[in-house]
Amino acid sequence: MSSVTCRKITKNYGSVQVIHEFSYVFNDKEFITLLGPSGCGKTTMLRMIAGFERPTTGEILIDDEIVSSSDEFIPPNLRNIGMVFQSYAVWPHMNVFDNAAYPLKIQRVNRNEIRRRVDEILEAVHLSEYSQRMPNELSGGQQQRVALARALVSNPKLLLLDEPLSNLDAKLRESMRYEIKELQKHFGITVVYVTHDQTEAMTMSDRVIVFNKGIVQQIDTPMNIYRKPANEFVADFVGRINFIEGTAHDGRIELAGGQSIYYSGKKRGDILVGIRPENVTLYDENYAVVS
């Protein structure tokens, strides 16, 4: 399908820098999640890949074609991408079939081909029996699947999703996470997904990019993001954790309160220990495990 290369991307709004020199390659058929709190710059980064925003500096390439640089800028409609927004953005005056068919009509695809491709995509998103329904007759999850069908029907190189599940209830979010992953595997498409929900990032992604205040904190697999966080922010943002101050020396860390633990790291002196709840075992005063 497609890869995306970002080279030294920055984005300023006036005197405020919202993206600080971002460089990364989104590999073909990868599911990459941009994760972070509100206002961290993840949606801005997605919009620059889509072409809705232009970087202040740097280059963006889709495959080997420059789509954004100081000298060149290809608009969103010519980048061959699919985009799904947080607000669904389905046309209220069109039925499900016509919503899904809209990109093909804009491209002036012939009627028979439109019918074939729309029928195929509605089957993939489990909406074939709803093709003649209007958006106000659909649930939130069904409307989101219409948006996915519309984004995928023209066989885009790249699928971009901007917090697409945030308006759904918890049970529906869980099922939609599964459906989006299945669609990605079915179409073999590269996905860039934006969310502040760590569960979505951990369960759906091949790799996660954690942002904070426009700066990349860590790029890694979900397991390493959780088990080997790069810094205190990542450790605290992803999952639950307790921090305890200590002092490292001679293969041990002396914790506040007189306890000590073994330590194989190289850092010496003051240190901050992060402990996940599932890694804690309780002992009684006779050192027998408390079950």
Verbal overview:
It is a single chain. The chain is α/β, with parallel strands linked by helices. It has 8 helices and 14 strands. It has helices at 42-50, 96-106, 111-124, 140-152, 170-187, 198-204, 222-227, 232-237, and strands spanning 4-13, 16-26, 31-35, 57-62, 65-68, 81-84, 158-162, 190-195, 207-212, 215-220, 242-249, 252-255, 260-262, 269-275. A hairpin with a 2-residue loop joins strand 4 and strand 5 (65-68).
Brief summary:
The protein is an alpha/beta fold.
Features of the shown structure:
291 residues; alpha/beta; six-stranded mixed β-sheet; 8 helices
Point out poorly predicted stretches.
none
Main sheet summary: 6 strands, mixed
Helix-strand pattern: EEEHEEEHHHEHEHEEHHEEEE
Structural class: alpha/beta
The number of strands is 14
Strands, helices and their partners?
Blueprint: E1 4-13, E2 16-26, E3 31-35, H1 42-50, E4 57-62, E5 65-68, E6 81-84, H2 96-106, H3 111-124, H4 140-152, E7 158-162, H5 170-187, E8 190-195, H6 198-204, E9 207-212, E10 215-220, H7 222-227, H8 232-237, E11 242-249, E12 252-255, E13 260-262, E14 269-275
Parallel strand pairs: 3-8, 3-9, 6-7, 7-8
Antiparallel strand pairs: 1-2, 1-4, 4-5, 9-10, 11-12, 11-14, 12-13
Helix pairs in contact: 2-3, 2-4, 3-4
